[in-house]
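Budget justification aside, the reviewers requested a transparent look at the raw inputs and outputs of the sequence design task funded under Objective 1. We therefore reproduce one unedited record. The lines immediately below are the structure tokens for a 71-residue chain.
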């Protein structure tokens, strides 16, 4: 978990990765929750759920060459 001060900083931190495989967005504020979910670039995104260990039918983003071959 990485601390942040603003919503913009949180989104920038989430997207500052060469991999972007998966992310979780947790909030009780549905408006902010879906704003962030729509702006985070990840292959799998959980909304108000922590990471689940299950195979994903979705493609992943960025530099993960093994996942890109699955797409």
């Amino acid at each position: 978990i990485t601390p942040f001060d603003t919503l913009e900083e949180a989104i920038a931190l989430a997207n500052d990765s060469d991999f972007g495989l998966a992310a979780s967005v947790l909030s009780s504020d549905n408006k902010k929750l879906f704003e962030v979910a729509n702006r985070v670039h990840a292959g799998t995104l959980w909304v108000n759920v922590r990471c689940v260990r299950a195979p994903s039918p979705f493609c992943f983003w960025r530099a993960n060459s093994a996942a890109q071959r699955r797409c």
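The first strand starts at residue 22 and ends at 25. Residues 13 and 53 are 23 Å apart (CA to CA). Computational costs for records of this kind are itemized in the attached budget.
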